[in-house]
Design goal:
single chain, 510 residues, Cholesterol Oxidase, domain 2, six-stranded antiparallel β-sheet, five-stranded parallel β-sheet
Amino acid sequence: MNAWDYIVVGAGSAGAVLAARLSEDPAVQVLLLEAGPDYRAADTPTQFHDRNLGRGLELSPSREEGNPEFFWSGPTARRQASQPVFPYRRGRGMGGSSTVNGLCAIRALPDDFADWVAMGAAGWSFEDVLPAYVKMETDHDHPEDEYHGDSGPTPIYREPESGWGGTDTALRDAALHAGHKWDPDHNAPIGGGAAAFAMNIRDGRRVSTNDGYLDPARDRANLTVRGDAHVDCIVFDGGSAVGVRLASGEVIRAAAGNGEILVAAGAVHTPGILLRSGIGPEGTLKAIGVDPVAVLPVGEGHQDHAVIFVELPVVPESQVCVGNRPTNVIVRYSSEIGDSRANDMMLMASNHNYWFGLPTAGLGIQLNQAYSRGTYHLRSADPFENPHFEMDLLSDPRDLERMRDAVGRTAEMLDHPSFRRIATGEARLPQTDEEILGMVKDVMHLCSTARMGAAEDPAAVVTPDCRVKGIDGLRVIDASIMPSVPSANLNLTVIAMAELAAARLAGRPL
């Protein structure tokens, strides 16, 4: 029987990185457990390699013979109190959501990390995390810059203008006319303005953490990967985590004395594992019939980016672009409303709304800096029980005010000749706060379900070294622990967090 130094739960954006990096030391035994199917990079469904997010969504979410379930399709969310409940789908299997996301490889901003440090996450400043961003990437456009990498597992690519769609070009032109500057690299430490989206693509194909990290490490004798290993809960001996119990009933133990459990099941599923283990709010644990091990605010105060998609009917030829890519251009800008920080807002070109089944193009208006927080609900301790999220998007007046302002700015953008040239009708813009609240969507960027903070912070579940408060041998390393949602898509930052955490666990510099 193996004596596992590390049992990593979840093979997604964080877990695959942790397993690959920690197993670089041949003296360390690493077990990676994934609830979804196990497959090598070469066996990844063709749709998931596509640069168009919608292609992956064509795969049936039902588990039929010969068709593994590549999505968690059971979790649900209500974006705003006036809206119905929607599925909140996440990637399932090797690479997790890095295998099915929108390929937007955007770094968080220095101010995001400054906020984290101010919230008690010491050791997670931009200066701390920057070396991890550098190590994880190969930036094909800016390899010479000291704040970019040229030999990491994650390729960074920007589509040249020749491959853009009509809405990409129109947004760029309208933004420049409105006074925004052109930013050749929105992953520079101080970015902003109109820019080409950075994407984790090589040779026209997605590179997930399964492709870039896990697959190259598979043949190591000290790394064991198990798919279809659905973790129910953590096993304790007194105040120490000593192993995990699978939904099948199998118990897997870490090495006695110094083995660790690293939970990296993602912001959707990590809270359920903790709650079923007896770690969470006292009332929630009582409601699902679990005896408390550590009373901590698991699931409380999560965040996501709020977005409104403005539909614009356009001439069909303007929707043609390389790889049928929905978006290649963004505009990050500062609303300058209240105490908002730089680049708190973002506009995204949408050459077509493939993932919503709409024939139109348009713009996405995204709230990068969010104040609103939601609540997590779990009805039972059944390991297959799906969570529900009340997102409460735009519930904080500061968020609604900035979204209202952004709708007005977007209307001005859409009146630019570059948009009028491709439009065949009027854009569908919300006219009232009620319409804004009715149209708002999440971006499936869930985080902060097990927040990191100072040991004495009652809102924190883990300390800055990722340890669950009051428990030995148990850490959480994924988007769950982000103190607040960063001003960027989450995937790149989650990978960087795992890189940094792995280096610290191994006691080596990045």
